[in-house]
Amino acid sequence: MAVKLLASRKLAGDACCAAACPADADTDADGTFVVGTYTLDAACGARRGVLYVFQGAAVEAASLQARLASRRRFARPVTSRQARAQEVAALDTAGIFDVRWAPKGGALVAVACADGSVLVCRARASASAPIGVVCGAQCAESAMCTSVDWLSSRQLVACDQSGQAHLLDVGEVRTRRARRRAAACC
Q1: Would you call 7 helix, strand, or coil by DSSP?
Q2: Is residue 178 part of a domain?
Q3: How many domains would you assign to the chain?
């Protein structure tokens, strides 16, 4: 079996990690994926990142080219082969080392950041509210958070570069659909 390249994008910063929304997730983010970047600004020592949200649907190359040209984010022209992943949104953060979708409970993405924090973001393919930080925690004051994963729908595990593992409780973060379903049951 051969693997066929469907899309490529040049992002602002070094693409460090990517994650696709689980196909069986109860969410409005089907076909959505996120990419995290990391850039070290050597002049000031700042570690910057961007969390990109993409929709993996086919898009006309001409309309995508016009939209991206106005932003000047991409270094080279978009071809029809590259036009299959449409950028929906981008969120500026500290540098990103890891991203993980929540296994259940909505379009939630855990993000491990270079400033030692873990963010939980809501990422949707919807243009009306595509991305936003729901909550976050500072795991390490002087170390970068290098990995994160969901232990359950409410708990995260994260590691930092100093060798510490952190268990985090993100509390009751649910989608509007899950809240409506819970209200209908009671």
Answers
A1: coil
A2: yes
A3: 1
* Residue 51: CATH number of its domain: 2.130.10.10
pTM for the structure as a whole: 0.73
Residue reference for tokens 């491990």: 112
Angle (CA) 59 19 148, round 5° = 155
Q: Is the separation of the CB atoms in 49 and 109 below 8 Å?
A: no
Query: Rounded distance, CA 136 to CA 176, Å?
Result: 20
Residue 100 falls inside a structural domain? yes
41-56 residue pLDDT tens: 889 988 999 998 888 7
- In angstroms, the Cα distances linking 182 to 33, 124, 178, 186 are 27, 21, 6, 7
Q: Which residues contact 75 (CB under 8 A, 6 or more apart)?
A: 10
Closest of 169, 170, 120, 113 to residue 146, by C-alpha: 113
d(CA 54, CA 59): 12
What is the pLDDT at residue 64? 47
38 in a structural domain: yes
The encoded tokens of residue 9 equal 């994008």
Question: Tens of pLDDT along 70-121?
Answer: 545 444 555 544 446 778 888 999 999 999 998 876 688 999 999 999 999 9
Task: Report how far residue 162's alpha carbon sits from residue 129's, in angstroms, rounded to the nearest whole number.
Answer: 36
Query: pLDDT at position 59, please?
Result: 42
The answer to whether position 7 is within a domain reads no
